[in-house]
Amino acid sequence: MTTANKITLARMMLIPIFMYSAISEGAQGNFVALALFAIASLTDGIDGYIARKYNQITDFGKLVDPLADKLLVMSALLILLEQGILSSWACIIILAREFVVSSLRSIAASKGVVLAAAFWGKLKTLSQLVCIMYLLSGVSDVVIYGSLTLKKLSIWVMVFFTVFSGYDYLKRNFYLIKDGVSKGE
User: Fold this and answer.
1) Which of 11, 93, 143, 173 has the fewest CB atoms found within 10 Å of its own CB?
2) Per-residue confidence (pLDDT) for residue 113, from 0 to 100
3) Which domain holds residue 108?
4) Angle (nearest 5°) at CA 23 between 21 and 24
5) What is the domain-level CATH number for residue 122?
6) What percent helix, strand, coil does the chain show, rounded to 5?
7) b/e per residue, 145-164, with b = 16+ CB within 10 A?
8) Helix or strand run (H / E) with residue 90
């Protein structure tokens, strides 16, 4: 097993520990959850860097790395939803985008096409990680203007980049599904 894949698996193993910490009572649980989420988020960049630099790109890594990313983000979103910090509409939009993009990736793979991550997808991931860390931090909310708070703004920014990156992904790769019928059927 490559070093990059070991790091990815370590990220996956951090997820249940992160979740347990996040649902634990008290400031210590919140701090540990935030720290674990931040560490797990950093490992995403590290494993990718190592995989590219040391030619450790594997099919296993191609499968497990995005899965680990989605499990980490989704577990955090669901915990924030359960705690009443995140609204269900935001969670559903993010989940829907991930299902659509994952489905499109599956179709592309069945046609022998690899869909690389794009700039907007990377910005989406960054906005999600920053927003989630902010929401997990437990810091007092700041009123920006009227009823607009920093928490609401960060959620709107996260949702915007999620939707826009999904739109961009579909627009760039629509040719894969535009005919509506698979060849050979």
Assistant:
1) 143
2) 85
3) 3-176
4) 65
5) 1.20.120.1760
6) 75, 5, 20
7) eeeeeebeebbeebbebbee
8) helix 88-110
Contact (Cβ atoms closer than 8 angstroms) between residue 77 and residue 37? no
* Token pair recorded at residue 1: 């097993």
Three-class SS state of 148? strand
Q: How far apart are the first and last CA of the chain?
A: 39
**Is residue 164 a part of any domain in this protein?**
yes
Helix (H) or strand (E) holding 145: strand 143-145
In a domain, 51, yes or no: yes
- Whether residue 125 is contained in a domain is answered as yes
Which pair of tokens denotes residue 55? 């030619």
Q: How many CA atoms lie within 13 A of 123 on its CB side?
A: 14
Chain CA centroid to CA 38, Å: 13
In a domain, 183, yes or no: no
d(CA 11, CA 71) in angstroms, rounded, equals 10
- Alpha-carbon distance of 151 to 131, in angstroms, equals 8
Residue 98: other Cβ atoms inside 10 A: 18
The number of folded domains in the chain is 1
Say how far apart CA 74 and CA 76 lie, in whole Å: 5
* Segment 36-88, tens digit of pLDDT: 999 999 998 899 899 999 999 888 888 898 889 999 999 999 999 999 999 99
